[in-house]
Write a structure and sequence with these properties.
By secondary structure, the chain is of the alpha/beta class. It contains twelve helices and seven strands. Helix 7 links the parallel strand 2 and strand 3. Helix 2 crosses helix 3 and helix 2 packs antiparallel against helix 10. It is globular, with a radius of gyration of 21 Å.
Amino acid sequence: MKDASFLDRLAPDELRALYRDMVLLRVFDEQATAYSRQGRLCTYAICWGHEAIQAGALRALAATDWVFPSYRETAVGLLREMPIEKVLSWLRGEPAGLWDPYEHCVANICVPIGTHVPHAVGFAWGSRLKGEDRCSLVFFGDGATSEGAFHEGLTFAGVVRAPVVLVCNNNGWAISTPVSAQTGAEKLADKAIGYGIPAIRVDGGDVLAVYEATRRAVERARAGGGPTFIEAVTYRMAPHATADEPSLYWDEERVSAERKRECLIRYEQQLEDLGVLRDEDVERAHERSRADVRAAMAVIEARPPSPATTMFDFAYADPPPRVVRDRDALEREGDAQ
């Protein structure tokens, strides 16, 4: 880091806690990827190499600030003490994976691209109208900036000066579409200008740079300054998801080079240079996270499977006749087996 003030804001214990956050996200991601490929989880959006953006941004928030994740941030609730079993259950499509957003101030994940951006803006504005001292932070990828919901959300945020932090994870790809094919803008941060929103571009592989940018944005939001757009630039070093075949479109040499300087390696080396992280700390953090994730998976796999009719339970408040017929037929078929 060139700016020592980034480090001055966090004590050694806080720096190590941030490291453990990143390790938990990394280990969860590696385990979830393996479980998905074994057929034990549904398709999983891989976040390997994005931990600096997620952990750095979360560390800058107060516990009462709300987080609106995209599917790339499936596990950020773990940094808010959400049980690992809850997140794994969500990835299995089980009712036990539906968490109460108010319990951890983490909104449920919207899989359609960009639709949660207006949610975050509206929540932040509503909180301000109620006199609450909180802001919201929303994560989205570069692909979301090509969606209508993104522009609607930013228009609203700029007009009402909502206390929201908009964190764009620019990893260079919207599945297989490069940023160059999505926009003629030189930087995604430039898009914020048209909405009257200040923007900053940071190294998404530098967890402390992400933390500092988010801290300043949160401070500005609390002071009534309105929204801030943060473009965290990184590179996707893993497939888009476990159903993706990235060798069809990405540069293997670029990926190999980027993996040698990925965010966890960089932060680990930085803390070792500062003398606040030892080899045993590294080993302990990885071992504990692996044990916790594996234990959580054992718990949910020991549960009896949910009835097939569960798929109908949360689709309609007042289901139409055809849906009722399908549900009843499936229930009869299950009873007959």
